[in-house]
Design goal:
Layout lengths: L7 E3 L18 E2 L5 E4 L5 H6 L3 E4 H6 L4 H10 L8 H13 L3 E7 L5 H10 L3 E6 L6 H15 L3 H26 L6 H9 L8 H15 L9 E6 L8 H7 L2 E6 H6 L8 H7 L6 H14 L4 E7 L8 H7 L4 E6 L7 H16 L1
Parallel strand pairs: 3-4, 3-5, 5-6, 7-8, 7-9, 9-10
Antiparallel strand pairs: 1-2
Helix pairs in contact: 3-4, 6-12, 7-8, 7-9
Length: 359
């Protein structure tokens, strides 16, 4: 059951409100902390909602805070090492700041730091609920993990099935937003990023989220197409910097593909939860991701790709495979803490766009 009537303890200002044209706001998170469940990445929220809990993606809380840089500093002051991924520190700070009591950590299929982070959470009094994706895509094994996860939350399988159908309907609106971005050029890359990335928890209120998505769609459909010179694909985890999309737009580079964010929206039609989270590419090997990326590069007629890598993350190791596999120009951008693009980054992006325009 959605909790739309509850007051908010965190408003999605910078990340999910003010960036959206025409002031189409997403809801804030509810304040019922007894029912709030912090999540460290996308997990089967159908189970959490069906059990009567409210998922809160701690990544979104972190990056949409008025001072995400300060949250990283807070985490370091509380003992997290400086040479740790800023997203990890942000997740920790978000959990402390929101006051959630229960946290789901993905211990296989996400960040290599999550094991240690969950130990820290447990040592500080949080209730820790582990979830894992199979190392390789294995639908049968994933089905076992889903059953175990549902048991931990006391979720009824009939309710889970009904919740899947409801969330599939809501996600279809986000898929249409994505289509308007790449096929009709009526939604910009930043808006598409925001709507897709927020499907990880639907801002804790799926009913209100659906209403806002429909409102946004109705406005977006009547827009004039975006004037642009280049069609750009973005691959990798969501960016920690706050002005990448707006700077690309200044250069008339239209981002028509947000790889991981689109995966959060569960873009494939499925009959079961196990099938849905088996086709979801994010937790699995790089080859599954590359198949999806190659297919979308061709379908969306992408001129070049920005490959985002986060400092102190294991994912940059994949860059060698990505560069050997993809047949379009690639610009790798690495970031550390939240903030704006620096001069060197802007120069590199400008040079990349000019090279693509000459091609």
């Amino acid at each position: 059951m959605a909790q739309a009537s509850l007051p908010v303890f965190h408003k999605l200002k910078t990340f999910m409100d003010t960036l959206i044209e025409d002031k189409i706001h997403l809801p804030g998170y509810p304040a019922n902390l007894d029912k709030a469940v912090g999540i460290t990445t996308t997990v089967p929220i159908e189970i959490i909602f069906a059990a009567g809990y409210i998922p809160i993606d701690l990544n979104n809380v972190f990056i949409s805070d008025d001072d995400p840089y300060g949250m990283v500093d807070d985490a370091e002051l509380n003992g997290l090492p400086r040479n740790t991924c800023a997203w990890t520190k942000g997740v920790y700070a978000a959990a402390v700041k929101t006051g959630v009591k229960k946290i789901v950590g993905v211990v296989q299929g996400d960040c290599s730091h999550t094991h240690a982070l969950m130990d820290i959470f447990e040592s500080e009094g949080f209730e820790v609920v582990p979830f894992e994706y199979p190392y390789k895509r294995d639908k049968n094994r994933l089905e076992e993990y889903l059953k175990s996860f549902a048991h931990k939350f006391g979720a009824d399988f009939n309710k889970i099935d009904k919740m899947k159908k409801a969330l599939d309907r809501i996600r279809a609106n986000v898929h249409e937003i994505d289509r308007l971005a790449w096929q009709e050029n009526r939604v910009n890359g930043e808006e598409n990023h925001i709507w897709n990335v927020s499907t990880s928890d639907m801002a804790g209120d799926y009913e209100s989220y659906e209403k806002r998505a429909v409102e946004f769609l109705n406005k977006a459909k009547s827009r004039q197409p975006i004037d642009h010179k280049l069609r750009i694909g973005y691959i990798g985890i969501p960016p920690i910097c706050d002005d990448l999309y707006s700077f690309l737009a200044e250069l008339r580079c239209h981002v028509v593909f947000n790889e991981s964010q689109r995966q959060f929206s569960m873009p494939f039609t499925t009959d079961s939860l196990a099938e849905q989270y088996t086709l979801y590419t994010y937790p699995y090997d790089v080859f599954a991701k590359l198949e999806d990326i190659e297919r979308e590069i061709e379908r969306r007629k992408i001129d070049g790709v920005i490959s985002y890598v986060q400092n102190f993350c294991h994912r940059p190791i994949y860059e060698k495979i990505i560069r050997n596999r993809l047949k379009v120009p690639i610009l790798s951008l690495d970031f550390d803490k939240p903030g704006s693009l620096n001069g060197a980054m802007r120069t590199r992006i400008e040079a990349f766009s000019e090279m693509l325009k000459k091609r």
